[in-house]
Amino acid sequence: MNREEIIKKLYEEDPEFREIKDKHDELDKDIAKKEKHHPMTHDLEMEIEKLKRQKLYYKDLMEKKIQEAMKKQSS
Question: In a structure prediction context, what are the per-residue pLDDT tens digits for the chain, which is 75 residues long?
């Protein structure tokens, strides 16, 4: 199984992974929407940075689960 297949399988079979990925995707959309706002205020920039840190946290959680699944597969 390649990486994309593992992600798809985790999304379908692991409720925790699905929740993490959905939250990551939701943050991604929210960030994109806020970045289009003009003029950009300092408060908005700070909020976007906070959301980006949260998104990175969820990405790290997803990556950990993906790596675990890949390790299991190769065993």
Answer: 899 999 999 999 999 999 999 999 999 999 999 999 888 999 999 999 999 999 999 999 999 999 999 999 887
**What is the sign, positive or negative, of the torsion defined by CA atoms of 38, 41, 44, 49?**
positive
Q: Which amino acid is at 31?
A: I
6 and 65 Cβ atoms separated by less than 8 Å: no
Question: pTM surpassing 0.85?
Answer: yes
